[in-house]
Amino acid sequence: MERIGVVGGGLMGSGIAEVCARAGCDVLVVESDAPAAEAARARIEKSVRRAAERGKILHPDDVLAQVRVGTDLDELADRELVIEAIVENEDAKVDLFAKLDKIVAPDAILASNTSSIPIMKLAVVTQRPQQILGIHFFNPVPVLKLVELVPSLMTSEETTTRSRAFVEQQLGKQAILCQDRAGFVVNALLIPFILSAIRMMESGFATPEDIDHGLVLGAAHPQGPLALADLIGLDTVKAVAESLYEEFKEPLYAPPPLLLRMVSAGLLGRKTGRGFYTYD
Ligand code: NAD
Predict the structure, then answer these.
(1) Which residues line ligand 1 (CB under 6 A)?
(2) CATH homologous superfamily of domain 3-177?
(3) What is the pTM (predicted TM-score) of this model?
(4) What is the CATH number of domain 187-271?
(5) What pLDDT digit, counting tens, does each position of 64-74 carry?
(6) Where are the domain boundaries for CATH 3.40.50.720 in the chain?
(7) Residue 226: helix, strand or coil by DSSP?
(8) Are 31 and 73 in contact (CB under 8 A)?
């Protein structure tokens, strides 16, 4: 696939646009308004230049020339694949998929980078449910290799096969196949693990440092669960836990009171300077 659309050029969308451009695709990013488009352009440019300084990209100008950023969804008409990466809001995504379905060529694939919204909710508002799936990248997109491919019950084999070929052969990522269930594979395992560490700390069982050292030194994790929670952002951990709890109603997914209080207090981890640890 050569002509790729990305809707939403925030943290994830700009990273997705970058990896597609680095793979030689013609990329069109559509943002909600001109200032957001300008910010998306600047984000992509900064990341590409930084990668070039580190020797990861040889011809940054050529990569940047592959990306256009605009504000008009109609310009996506000729795209073979459109990846949606707008805010994590079901109404906004449903509205966008209904619009994209009318604009983009009927044989194109429409994908969502959603972390928690059922793919089926997006598929049923289109006339092409067999060509809708989740393509879930990980942050930072240019660095992390994994992509979760999430076909819904109505996604065709062909759509999944083409999408896998795109992310693996063109983008050089590694895909895993997941069911259309909250959390897919990674978050469904990672979030209860983090929540267990928070409960352990909350009960006075061990300090954050000892919990994290335990997992780093005893299980060869690159960082402990509480340091990882601070990196992800405690508001995001809470939101993903709530969507898992909403789907499965299992106590292991319920956000513990300490997490709720920390989020209320604005102690969100690295991004606010304080979470389970403090940061300069
Ligand atoms: P973000 O807030 O950084 O970016 C969202 C962007 O979408 C903003 O730039 C906003 O202007 C734009 N936007 C909003 N509505 C739009 C519309 N109708 N049309 C065009 N643009 C619109 O958010 P993000 O962290 O990049 O997350 C985007 C998606 O990726 C979400 O679905 C999120 O769940 C998912 N995701 C996030 C992460 C992560 O670590 N942040 C990881 C995997 C998946």
Answers:
(1) 7-13, 30-32, 36, 85-88, 92, 96, 113-115, 136-137, 139
(2) NAD(P)-binding Rossmann-like Domain (3.40.50.720)
(3) 0.93
(4) 1.10.1040.10
(5) 999 999 999 99
(6) 3-177
(7) helix
(8) no
